[in-house]
Design brief:
D-Maltodextrin-Binding Protein, domain 2; SsuA/THI5-like domain-containing protein; single chain; alpha/beta; SsuA/THI5; signal; 331 residues; 2 domains; globular
Length: 331
């Protein structure tokens, strides 16, 4: 009897030991993501974290903010991040410079420009021709917001350098302060700054550059080709979680989405987050799926080319891989 009890104890102990050893197989795999900025414009990314979609796929996604496209790409290329969330044009710039390890876009997050035209005074009957002869506070030359801004202005028959007094010598972070201090009659701003100015009576949103420009791969998740080839399962899991988040954002009301991402914006009022989410959802700035299609890729390069920043066209098949997005959607 005692021998039987002893055997049972030994078996139980061995079982517990192996259970403890096997625990490591269920631990989450860390993925480092460098984002270009912290923005409500990227809501589905934060939803994938807060709602546990990444964790469900076995991933521990850690997000760091690089504050700038060049810094984000430097972080990715130097190995400081596995994946980057940045404008797709940066992958083209890397390709133009020549590299043995190209950067590949594998999942799209936003499909429109995220900026708005803000006027100093209310203009309920605004027409784009009203901008002619005005002082326009634009974004940094060569950056995607400015290139899209100029593309939209030209679309409406306005030559940015000839028909406007265009100001482009102010750092991105100081543009709102410059406008609040009296510089410019119009300014191109991201959210939530545009809504903050409306709330404070400093400015008034009168048009959306995103609605005017059409769908483009404005912000995408990308990685070095070498990383993707070695970590296809991780990239697939990441894309699966992102697609879940993209669907969830459009299935839920804006206030629910706002509560989900609020921990990423501790200094921003919840009602403001809600209004920004609602505005971006209304114009479908958040992509509804992770696929970056070829028509969007062509338009992106048309915009860059028109701005004089494109040295050579980058093949869609070379810098874009939709296989992970397609599998995520089938799943």
């Amino acid at each position: 009897m005692r021998k039987m009890q002893l055997c049972l104890i030994i078996l139980l102990t061995v079982s517990l030991v192996f259970t403890g050893c096997g625990k490591s197989s269920t631990e989450l795999q860390t993925v480092q993501v460098a984002e270009v900025t912290r923005s409500i414009f990227y809501a589905p990314q934060y939803v994938a974290v807060s709602e546990g979609f990444f964790a469900e796929e076995g991933l521990d996604v850690q997000i760091t903010t690089a504050w700038g496209g060049d810094k984000t790409m430097t972080t990715l290329l130097s190995g400081g991040a596995d994946i980057a969330l940045v404008g797709s044009e940066t992958s083209i710039y890397v390709y133009q410079q020549g590299t043995d390890d190209i950067v590949v876009n594998f999942a799209q997050l936003t499909q429109t420009d995220g900026t708005f035209l803000v006027a100093r005074t209310p203009q309920p009957n605004f027409k784009w021709d009203d901008l002619k002869g005005s002082v326009f506070l634009g974004q940094r030359k060569g950056g995607m917001p400015q290139m899209v801004g100029e593309f939209v202005l030209k679309k409406h028959g306005i030559h940015p350098q000839q028909d406007l007094e265009l100001i482009q010598n102010i750092d991105f972070g100081n543009i709102p302060n410059a406008f609040a201090g009296g510089t410019g009659e119009y300014v191109q701003l991201f959210e939530p700054q545009a809504s903050i100015f409306e709330k404070e009576g400093i400015g008034h949103v009168i048009a959306s550059f995103g609605a005017e420009s059409g769908n483009i791969p404005y912000t995408s998740f990308m990685a070095k080709d070498s990383y993707i080839q070695k970590n296809k399962e991780v990239v697939q899991k990441f894309t699966n979680a992102l697609y879940k988040a993209q669907k969830w954002v459009y299935e839920q009301p804006a206030d629910v989405v706002a509560k989900s991402i609020a921990p990423f914006f501790e200094d921003t009022d919840l009602s403001l987050i809600t209004s920004v989410v609602e505005r971006y959802k209304a114009q479908q700035s958040y992509d509804t799926n992770p696929i970056l299609d070829e028509a969007e890729w062509i338009l992106l390069q048309d915009i860059i080319d028109e701005a004089g920043e494109l040295q050579k066209r980058a093949e869609y098949s070379k810098l874009v891989d939709t296989s992970f997005a397609q599998k995520a959607m089938k799943k």
